[in-house]
Amino acid sequence: MRKYVLTGGPCSGKTTLINELRKNGFSVLDETAREVLSSALISDKVINNKENYEKLEIEIFQRQLKKESSLCKKTLLYFLDRGTIDCLAYSEVFLGYVPEEIAIHTHSGRYDKVFALERLPFVNDGVRVEGTEEEAKKIHDFLIKTYLDYGYELIHVPVMSVEERMEFILRCIKSCCLNRYPSQQGCLSGD
Fold first, then answer.
1. I want to staple 89 with a disulfide (CB 3.0 to 4.6 A). Which of 37, 60, 67, 146 is the partner?
2. Whether the predicted pLDDT of 82 surpasses 90
3. What is the CATH number of the domain that holds 112?
4. pLDDT (tens digit per residue) in 7-28
């Protein structure tokens, strides 16, 4: 099974791209943080209280691990809306440290490729922990740094239409990654 992560700061188009990939028949894993944040009443008391935010980040991380471990092994290729590394970066930005429950896990080598989507203009949709353009940029920069720190090569996806972004990623996978795995070439057709 091949796992490809879509990462980037808030408002970089990850969820839109994941939905486009799903619409085209690809197997995807939705963003865990969005699920947790939309199911909980998130307030400034949670975000600005380190103990509460740490618990929130640990919950997101544990759910992400569980979701990733339950992926169908028969499916050759998955696209993930964020990976566990994102939890490390968010913890650094909002806590100034990575909680031990997250730090003890092996993070290198979990994903086959990481696609870093360039940011679009920031819009607060009410299901975000970031509140400003400056925070969104800081998170984006920390995400890039953290993936690099863990040895991942990032493929930067420029701002373009969602269809063009999808084609860009699929071309990259086909030319850069799957040439080593010829038996998986058919999985790029979606269905």
1. 146
2. yes
3. 3.40.50.300
4. 998 889 999 999 999 999 999 9
